[in-house]
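Cast an eye over my tokenised protein here and flag anything odd:

===
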Amino acid sequence: MSGVAYVFPGQGSQSAGMGLDLYENCPSARAVFDEADASLGFRLSRLCFEGPGDELTKTHNVQPAILSVSVACLRALQEAAIPGFPTPAFVAGHSLGEYTALVVAGVIDLADAVQLVRERGRLMYEAGLKNPGSMLAVIGLDEEAVRGISSDCQAEISNVNCPGQIVLSGTQYALAEADRLAKAGGARAVIPLKVSGAFHSVLMEPIMAEFGEVVSRCEFRPPAVPIVSNVTARPLTDSGSLKAELVSQLRNCIQWQGSVEYMVRNDVTAFYEIGPGRVLSGLIRRINSDVETFNVAGVEDIAQLAGTEGPAD
């Protein structure tokens, strides 16, 4: 195996019950949930383990929840102490997942990270109330075709996830027109996303200054591992550029395909998706079918990687 990257999922990967097996079987994962609960002042862990789903999916809840489960997955993997398990050459995360990457790279502590993303989620939700909008995944058209559609209907490309999967953000009127144009243009599917606003678009601009103030108050350390930027698809290696990235990311397109391609060009041949769900692994295989992908979402995955059966104590 050559280079390895750890990648972390974003909003949409959640499900009620996530992380419970880690909490019950892995002391280091349990410590993550306890720390997140203490930092936020309420039982985020119970929301992860029990739901209800409609409460879990609220933007200000789901963001710290996915971050906490992802960090718990990594801590449990580290606790398993698998001989020769590879360390990453890069870390990256999809939108929210970039904050998990910050924790893993030692830039910020977990307690600060969960507070930061809860505030991020609150501001994003409020921006959606003040400037209503949503997001739409276009399947089966290339980026040039979708860019033409976005220009015609005043929507914006907000995620370039993989070849043939591009997300648009905008007002409901703009997305209705984008839906019509995409279907007329031969899209295989057009899928509305269950989100509370037009994330990574101009409709998020009103919260950038306030969120920038929040970020500026956080202490950032230089990353121990290069973090591949969502916005530029290039590595970030100092605290100043990382702070600027988090604010810029609110309004700009998530270049996930470009991020994966950059890591592959720089000798990454295996990606470990660490956190709930398997969304990123699927995207990565569509971007480059030659790389390996592995999932770490719970104790069974860790046991498989360790070549054993059953949960690790």
Notes: Strands lie at 3-8, 90-93, 134-139, 156-162, 165-170, 189-192, 227-228, 235-236, 268-274, 292-296. The CA atoms of residues 80 and 174 lie 49 Å apart. The radius of gyration is 19 Å. Confidence is low (pLDDT under 50) at residues 309-313.
